[in-house]
Design a protein that fits this description.
Elements (H helix, E strand, L loop, with lengths): L3 E6 L1 E9 L2 E10 L3 E3 L1 H7 L2 E7 L4 E6 H7 L2
Antiparallel strand pairs: 1-5, 2-3, 3-4, 5-6
Length: 73
């Protein structure tokens, strides 16, 4: 039995930190289940991802949606 397949969008999280009087701002991207996605991947493939999960095997596969569309027969 195949697992569950769904399309998700990355969340852009912006933060700010003060260290020794300097303010540092940062941005990072996450998917559901708090899966971190590199900024370069989001810039190259876009914010839409396909998440395939198979609870029987305990496997979660995350692919950019554009890449998953290329692989379809």
């Amino acid at each position: 039995m195949p697992g569950k397949v769904r399309t998700v969008r990355v969340r852009e999280i912006k933060g700010r930190k003060v260290l020794k009087g300097k303010i540092y701002e940062y941005t990072y991207y996450t998917l559901p289940l708090n899966i971190y996605v590199r900024k370069s991947v989001v810039e190259r493939w876009g914010p839409e991802f396909v998440v395939e999960s198979d609870p029987d095997k305990g496997i979660v596969i995350v692919k950019p949606k554009k890449l998953a569309e290329r692989e379809e027969p």
